[in-house]
Amino acid sequence: MDRILEIINMLLNSEQPLTVDYIANTLKVSNKTIRNDLKKAEEFVQQKGVKIIKKPRVGIVLEGPRNKKLELVDEIKKSLDFEEPFSPEARKNYILKRLFMSKGSVTIKELAEELYVSRITIHKDLQSVEKWLNKFNLKLLKKPNYGIEVVGDEENWRNAVASLIVLTKEQKELKEFLYNDYTGRIDYRTLMQLRELFDIDYKQLEKIVSNAESKLKFRFSDEAFISLVIHVAISIERLKHKKDVKLSKAVLNNLKQKDEYVIAQQMAKEIEEKFNVVLSESEIGYIVLHIIGTKMQQNKIEDVNLELEDEESIELAVIMSKEIINIAERALSLDLSNDKQLLNGLILHLRPTINRL
Questions:
Q1: In 3D, which of 194, 238, 201, 220 has the Cα closest to residue 290?
Q2: Among 126, 280, 294, 318, which residue's CB has the most CB atoms within a 10 Å radius?
Q3: Number of folded domains in the chain?
Q4: Any idea what the CATH number is for the domain that residue 18 is in?
Q5: What would the pLDDT profile of 205-240 be if each residue is shown by its tens digit?
Q6: Is the overall model pTM greater than 0.70, yes or no?
């Protein structure tokens, strides 16, 4: 039985408020696990016209019209008939998401409880997690008696999260609660993956990207639009945790000469106002690089205006080549991280193009 549905079922059948302690003890999991489950339960019941109300020092109750509660009972009964356990691949993706979402370490015990498997199984799953992280030059740091966390270069961290969002949106074993009121350009599955990872206003973020699109007088393909939203969302979340990217002075100075940099600055101002973060010049340059990459994907490289010396063109070609490989990996579900010939070939291919622009 799915634990989230169990919690809702307990609340439906109780005439008194239930505490987190009581629910955790009944289901034999930690209080932290129950609090995480309650967030998902809230999303689910809201769509059915019912609310989960948390009363300080009292407990948790379900509030809503009787007919809506009865509909919720029927929905739960139907759901219980087809719930299946996670496969190893789905568990790997779940663990990755938990690690990227966490502000600190995650324990083996927590993962075992959340996925209904033994600690031995989690240890085996972590081997595939480490293998996946290695593609992005990230490491799984294991601290005895403390937990596990992802460590590595900030740009690699962001690329990994972007790749995971695209990868897991195809995972049909992961239960998703769709937001039926959403009418933006991001597909439902991608939106759900983003919302699970980062709690920000995606309608507002889409509006900011759309404004930039209008100023650029260039319409992104839906895939490119979503990709830019994903990368900006990741940037916002990381900046909240004081994590930012660093571009070299040479590349940054050349990016500042481009029309796209002015647009990116305007985007940054809107982002700062709406999401209460501060974007450095490197962060703005990072957005510019994504816009350039988008134009190159859509054969609009004639619109890109760069004047670079040889050393600088190499550095920019390397950055763009790695980004293209990341896009290809997500699109083809292939591991290309160790293909040095491909990377070198892209660099050699892009350098003359960049020098001509």
A1: 220
A2: 294
A3: 3
A4: 1.10.10.10
A5: 999 999 998 998 888 887 788 888 888 998 998 898
A6: no
